[in-house]
Amino acid sequence: GGGGAAAGGGGGPPAISPGSGMGGFGALAGGAADSGSRARSGGRALACLRFVLSGKFIGFLLIVAAIGVLVWNEGNLSRSAESLQGGMRYCTTVSAGAKPARYSGKFIHLIAGLQIDHELSDSDFHVRVRAARLKREVEMFQYTEMADSSSKSGYTYEGLWSAQLVKSDDFHDKSKTNPKKFPIQSFVTNAKDVSVGPLVISPALVEQINTWSRVGIDRVRRDYTLRGDYLYSGNPEKPAVGDIRVRYEMAGAHNEEVTVVGRASSGGKLKEFALPGGQRLELLKVGAYSKESMFSAAQSAGLEVWLLRLLSWVLLAAGLTLLADLVTAIVSWIPVLSSGANVRHLLVVLLSLSTVIALLGFLWLPTAPVTGSVTMAAALLPVLVLVKKGRAAKVRTD
């Protein structure tokens, strides 16, 4: 017994129970798993950060911005078109001879002559016209500097007539100097009381009279010479720097026929009409036009609309350029478009143009189905050009 006890208490290694052994191994394995999980999470975070900082992420942002600008722009235009179409149903065409009491308070379309009670004048040059608007245009003869590699100084100077002040402070030749200001100024003045038939129109409508014609000059100041349409302060044949020339134009002559659209008020004035969509409308156009023509002109897209469409295309093209590898790979997988991958320089331009045109058509489908369908069909044209150019490039390569 003692031997057994001595043997049991000897210096051999301690016994390890199965339970304690597995527990220790599990703890080690768990620590390793947590460490691996953290490493994978850190790797994913780093990958996301690299993507955000890469050109591809910026490319996606540009594409989203392009679509956003296009949707916002066309949405505004579509709502405006719907409002104008609704307003046209309220608009009544009246004759110039009808009594104002018959259409007082109504939204009207009227063709009549301009009535100008007082003449517009410029006492400086004894000019008087019976018109809605008078414009004086003043030009001054001034030096202009032009780069010229054939001259010793590298620059040449030429006298030209200009309506803008040409600053000579930065000229390389300091002997060539222009006046610091115009001796007389250009201007446009409008008549205060302008009527179309029996209705007085607003200053905003007078501003819409932009069909200008030259004004003949009958009286000439002693210090000026008349040549053609211009009054010259110096010798017309040999002008000197600082000489000026003046001419006059007018718009909206007395009794000239115009077409207006607006609300006839009880006070004998033509004012803005509030359309169903909240848009306020008053229109004037020189000449005789139908109601449909006036509203159609108002619905046409202005410069701002086209500039925003161009901006959308540029943003989309820039976005696709940053994703060029991905775009090329996708195109190469599509059998119909695969040849387009051979012309990468045209791929982004034509694909972005086609996308913008297709989006335009899609956005106009609800309000103008025919226009939207035709526009979407037109989106195929850049694609056809891309395919044709791609096939030609492949033939040359082969």
Description:
The protein is an alpha+beta fold and 398 residues long. The protein has helices at residues 2-8, 18-53, 55-90, 100-103, 203-207, 291-299, 303-322, 324-333, 344-364, 369-378, 380-397, and strands at residues 92-94, 107-116, 120-122, 127-129, 131-147, 155-162, 187-190, 194-196, 199-200, 212-214, 225-227, 230-232, 244-253, 257-264, 270-271, 273-274, 280-281, 283-286. α3 (55-90) packs parallel to α9 (344-364).
* End-to-end separation: 98 Å
User: How many strands, what sense, and barrel or not for the largest sheet?
Assistant: 7 strands, mixed
Shape: flat
Hey, roughly how much beta strand do the residues contain?
A: 15-25%
Mean pLDDT: 82
* H/E element sequence: HHHEHEEEEEEEEHEEEEEEEEEHHHHHH
Number of strands: 18
Rg measurement, Å: 39 Å
> Residue share in helices?
40-55%
Number of helices: 11
Report the uncertain regions. 1-25
Which structural class is indicated by helix and strand composition?
alpha+beta
